[in-house]
Each structure stands twice: as C-alpha cells, then as structure tokens.
Amino acid sequence: MDVEQLHSAIELPEGSWWDWDVVAWDRDRFRLAAGYDLTYHHSLELVFTAPVFVSCPANFHDPRFRAPTSEELARITGRLGETPSVLVAFEADAGGSEPVSCLIAADRLDVVQETVLRYWREDVAPGQRFAPWVRPPGN
User: Fold this and answer.
1) What's the pLDDT score for residue 3?
2) Is residue 13 a contact partner of residue 44, using CB atoms and an 8 Å limit?
3) Is the pLDDT of residue 5 over 50?
4) Do 24 and 31 meet the contact criterion of CB atoms below 8 Å apart?
5) Could you give the C-alpha distances from 126 to 11, 45, 116, 137, 139, in angstroms and in order?
6) Cβ neighbours around 110 below 10 Å, total
7) Which of 4, 89, 96, 118 is buried deepest, with most CB atoms within 10 A?
8) H or E stretch including 129?
9) What pLDDT is stored for residue 123 in this prediction?
10) Nearest-5° Cα angle at 114, 133 to 109
C-alpha cells in the first residue's frame, strides 16, 4: 500500500460498532475492541502492531473514522522523525460535551472480526476466543 492508502479513513466491516474500549496495550500491540454492548463479548478488534503514538480515551462510543489532516500528519511526522506507516484518525464520544479527536500511529493495522468472550465459559464455540484477562475459575 502507498502512503495515501495507509493514511486514508479506515473502513470497518458491516456491524454494530457503537461501544469501544482498549483491551490490550503493550510495546508490540495496541488493541481496540468494538461491539454493540461490551458487557459479555466484542466482535471486532483493531490491532495496531508496534504502536508509536496513541491519543485516545480508554473507552468511547460511536467513532467517526476519517483521513488524518495534513496538519496531523505533519505533527506526528515531526514528533517521530519519520512518516508513520499507519495513521488512524477519528472523533468519538468520550462522555464529554464535545467529541474528542483521536490519533493512532503504528507500523501496521489489522482489522479482526471474531467473537471474543469477556467472561469464562466451558462451551466455547469454534471461531470464539477469550479476552486476554479471562481465566478459568481457580486460576
């Protein structure tokens, strides 16, 4: 992909992606999860590999993804000393009176669509997995 494609607005698969939260963040990965109700599961993850800049709340609603502005790209490029491979921009409802602007820069972005359970259960169906914090009882 060229820089224009990587810095355009991302397109999500069809679905109800109203609730969002950060489900994992370490040096190698930054994961945002989405669904229509995050109480029991989520069905979409944006997985950013090698995140180098993250500015977004821990949980938010109804993001509007867009292409980063030239000012945002210049600011992040100046901060990093190089143009990031991936730069995702969006506005979201974080509970305040106005939407919050968010930016995430990383080496790679993968959109993963599968059911991720947020609680323990014995009968996990094929194509389902547990969220990173879910452990069997007694562990």
Assistant:
1) 46
2) yes
3) no
4) yes
5) 26, 18, 11, 21, 23
6) 11
7) 89
8) strand 128-130
9) 86
10) 85
SS3 71: helix
Residues 60/101, Cβ–Cβ less than 8 Å: no
Place of tokens 């502005």: 69
Stretch 131-136: mean pLDDT: 86
What pLDDT does residue 6 have?
57
The DSSP secondary-structure symbol of 127 reads T
| Burial (0-12, 13-18, 19+ Cβ within 10 Å), 127 | exposed
Could you give the 3-state DSSP secondary structure of residue 115?
strand
Which residue, 46, 135, 42, is CA-closest to 88? 46
| DSSP H helical ranges for the chain | 3-6, 70-80
The residues spanned by each domain of the chain are: 3-120
Between β-strands 128-130 and 108-117, what pairing exists: parallel, antiparallel or unpaired?
A: parallel
The model scores a pTM over 0.85: yes
